Amino acid sequence: MVVEARDHGMPSLSSTATAIIGITDSNTHTPVFIAPKYDAQVIELETNKEILRIPVQDQDTPNTPASRAVFTILKGNEEGNYKIETDPVTNQGVLTVIKANDYKKTTIVELEIGVENEEPLFVCIDTKPVNPIPETLKKNSTVKVAVKVIDVNDPPVFQNKIQKVFRIEEEEPGDVLYTPTVTDEDSANIRCEIAEDPAKWMSIDPKTCKITLAKKMDRESPHVHNSTYTVVMRAIDDGEPPATGTGTLVVHLRDINDNAPHLILNTSVMCGNKADRVRVTAEDADAFPFSGPFTFTLGKEDQELKRLWNLDPSSGV
Q1: Are 40 and 144 in the same domain?
Q2: Has residue 161 been placed in a domain?
Q3: In this model, does residue 138 exceed pLDDT 70?
Q4: For residue 6, is it within any domain?
Q5: Mapping DSSP to helix (H, G, I), strand (E, B) and coil, where does residue 89 land?
Q6: How many domains does the chain have?
Q7: What range(s) does the Cadherin domain occupy (predicted)?
Q8: Pick from 150, 170, 195: which residue ends a domain?
Q9: What element of type H or E holds 44?
Q10: Chain segment 240-294, per-residue pLDDT in tens
Q11: What is the rounded CA–CA span in Å between residue 34 and residue 42?
Q12: For residue 137, which of 122, 159, 126 has the smallest C-alpha distance?
């Protein structure tokens, strides 16, 4: 803008100056969805995946609070399966699935998405600010999104993911340890097998999943830890592709006295000029009360041996 200043002299003198007025844009236009409806799809049980980008148009100055979009899911997300965020570069709404959908409960999800700007909308009618904003100015601030849930082959499910049983070691084979309950909403044909059985003590019926003792169990086996033996079962359905579920059987083994104590060292050296005694030590693989304390004897009815040596039965000295 050029401004002129002129006096009233004779002759009249004047000068001009240029005024530059910066006009700051305010939020006078609502963001508008480009399409009346959107469609998306998500695979059942899928999470943390972007499924749709929703563009909007806004006549206000780009990259300002007056034009930057803020998206909200207004309806259809009561279980919290989805979230929507704004891409700071494109100003699009990014719809993401964050919680797995169950196809058995829902095949189509109808979402209603709303959008507004970071800066509140400002409207003047007849040079006067209007508040609240008429709904007619917000007619394009919501959009419908239909999300189709794609079914996948769900794996078989063990009713008890971890099952504990209690047995005594060295029991005869043939004992049925456990028959799990396995269900599959997609298939009636389930095949069971053993996934982990490090000592090869178990057998499983592929149809009923019944686990039977195939060999005697030994609590002192290196495969037993803290008196427990772990078996992992696997159930496989006939889907395309097949899906697998797993369950765990924890066998708590009670000890019996099935191991004899033995000397830790079979020989000991005694130096007569330094010491006149030596300690005999023993160990037993069984647990209390089938292990120590031990009773020591010379082991033979040899009177000459007893005359020359003395052995403390409780300490082994």
Answers
A1: yes
A2: yes
A3: no
A4: no
A5: coil
A6: 3
A7: 1-33, 34-158, 169-263
A8: 150
A9: none
A10: 888 899 999 999 998 777 777 878 777 777 776 566 777 878 776 777 777 778 7
A11: 22
A12: 122
pLDDT at 107: 85
Indicate whether 204 belongs to any domain. yes
Residue finishing a domain among 237, 254, 271: 254
Cβ burial of 158 (10 Å; 0-12, 13-18, 19+) is buried
Distances (CA, A) of 121 to 30, 76, 142, 171: 7, 26, 15, 80
Burial of 95 (0-12, 13-18, 19+ CB in 10 A): buried
User: CB neighbours of 71 closer than 8 A, spacing ≥ 6?
Assistant: 54, 84, 85, 86, 93, 113, 114, 115
Q: Whole domain around residue 283: which residue ranges?
A: 259-316
The CATH number assigned to the domain holding 101 equals: 2.60.40.60
Amino acid symbol at 270: M
What is the tens place of the pLDDT at every residue in 158-169?
999 999 999 988
For residue 48, what is the enclosing H or E element? none
pLDDT per position as a tens digit, 75-87 = 999 999 999 999 9
